[in-house]
Structures are given as structure tokens and as C-alpha cells.
Amino acid sequence: MEQTIExxxxxxxxxxxxxxxxxxKGLVTVDITWGEIxxxxxxxxxxxxxxxxxxxxxxxxxxxxxxxxxxxxxxAGIPGTAAIRLSDIVERMDELDRAKPTVFFCNGPQxxxxxxxxNMLLEAGYPAEKMWYYRGGIHDWITLGLPVVKDSE
Length: 153
Hints:
Layout: E1 19-20, E2 28-29, E3 47-49, H1 51-59, E4 64-66, E5 76-77, E6 82-83, E7 102-105, H2 113-123, E8 131-134, H3 137-143, E9 149-150
Keywords: Transferase
GO molecular function: transferase activity
Protein name: Rhodanese-related sulfurtransferase
């Protein structure tokens, strides 16, 4: 099977989340020119999870929080998640249920927002064992073809 790698021209605006190519069914374009790759572990004691764990978490009705700031959401979200922007996370931490683990995510492996949110919560006294880090974020979610909802920011 022959594989072709196709490079698109550089965009004027950074594309932080993958987009479906309008003229090529099944093709997703990804911009890797922004951000800095984040560590696999957000903080000591915080579990890093993948898509399978996030899906099971959502199916059980457990909390998943999108910490992306307005202007970085690009109109896409993961169905069933709550949005608490990074700048409000400590102020709103009482909205989190400490009896259940909460998954935190942002734009993906190049985005520092969920890692920052987790560290801010740790500094405020939130228990590490009740936080899960979905490093792949919306970037990997879309790239894998998982369902998204239109997000109004």
C-alpha cells in the first residue's frame, strides 16, 4: 500500500486543533508548529489517561473538565464535558466533586493549560489522586475521529 505525505501551505493563523479537509473525505489536517510538547505526567500522584479511560469516565457520568481559555477552543468540544477556564479553576474548585476523580484536558500534547490547571489545584490543596490528566486533549480526540460537539466558547 503506497502512502503519500502531503504538506499544505503554512496558515496565516495557528490551527490549534485538527480540522477535517473539506475536499478529502477522512483526511484531517494537523498543525504542529505551535506550542511545546508537554510532559506525560502533569504532576506527581496525578494519573495520566488516554481516550479509552476518558470514554469510560464519561459513560459512567463522571466529571471531565475542559480548561481551555476562550479564544483557544476553536469551536470544538468533547460531548458531555464541563468547561471551567484555566483562569477560573481555583476560584471554582468547589464545583468539583472530591469524592470522584475528575479528568482535565485542553488542546492536546502541545498545550500547557490542563497541566497548569492541575498544578494550580494542587497548590490550592486539591488531592492529586482525584485528578486525571488527559494529555491528548481535543487534538488527539479529533485526530482519532471521536465525536465532537460544536462549542460556542
